[in-house]
Amino acid sequence: MVQSSADKKLPLLNKIPDPLKTLINKIRDEHYSELYEPEADETACLDDALNDILNVFQNQGKTLCHLRYVWVALILALVVEPTVEFYQPQNDFTKSTLELIERWIFSQIDSDLSSKQLHFELQHEIKSWDEILSEPINPAQKGGIANFQIISESKDVFKNAIRALEREQAKEATLQILRDCLAGYAISPGSSGRRDLFEWWLLEVVPASWYLLSPRALYVGEGVENPEEFQIERIKKLQEISSQVRSIFTKNSST
Question: How far apart are CA 54 and CA 179, in angstroms?
Fold first, then answer.
């Protein structure tokens, strides 16, 4: 594929290994019925494309692979958070889930935090929040079937973000998050803009997750009152976590 001028503004896309870059270009050239694209001819399957990307993440060791899955989950949970807050303003699980993911990430890479006690505490929290997020939603109290699907799938993103913290479930949980976000209603409530959302994930989130960095920009879904503030706050949070992660990796490699 000839690199466009827009692609040249994506420095991480230019740095990723050639096999991943080739796969991204191949997937980008396809059209998918799941994204409501009229050009789709049923030969390309979105699930296959998502699986292919997640499989490439497995090429550099189990711990790094798992961290990449969780990084994808973290980015998408941050993007989905406003949807949950709009439809369930009294929720108490979005910020708690994001904080749990952050603490889990550091527990995996910092030997000073890798105690049995911390592991036990994190496992207890993971189980508790998984049970809370598994509670059924009553559609009669949530404004009808359309709203029910939005609430259900946005909540499902957070449930699977917690599932992703378990190594054996991480890939399937991440795959389900991608389904809810790219083909479902967790971020976009309709069919318009699906391709833009997909390309943002493919060109921004995938390279960023490969290196455990923040994307250059975040996708802003409907219902976000202040898009600029939304971008600044969440990118800053990702950059802070990424900086600490990379600092710990550097310290560990030098000892």
Answer: 13
For 97, counting Cβ atoms within 10 Å of its Cβ (0-12 exposed, 13-18 middle, 19+ buried), the class is buried
Query: Residue 181: how many CA atoms within 13 Å on its side-chain side?
Result: 33
Could you tell me the pTM of the whole model?
0.87
Average pLDDT rounded to a whole number, residues 98-123:
72
Long-range contacts of 13-22 (CB under 8 A, 24+ apart): 13/203, 13/207, 15/207, 15/211, 16/206, 16/207, 16/210, 16/211, 19/56, 19/59, 20/53, 20/56, 20/206, 20/207, 20/210
Joined together, the tokens standing for residue 25 give 């270009």
pLDDT one-digit tens code per residue, 9-39: 667 888 899 999 999 999 999 999 999 998 9
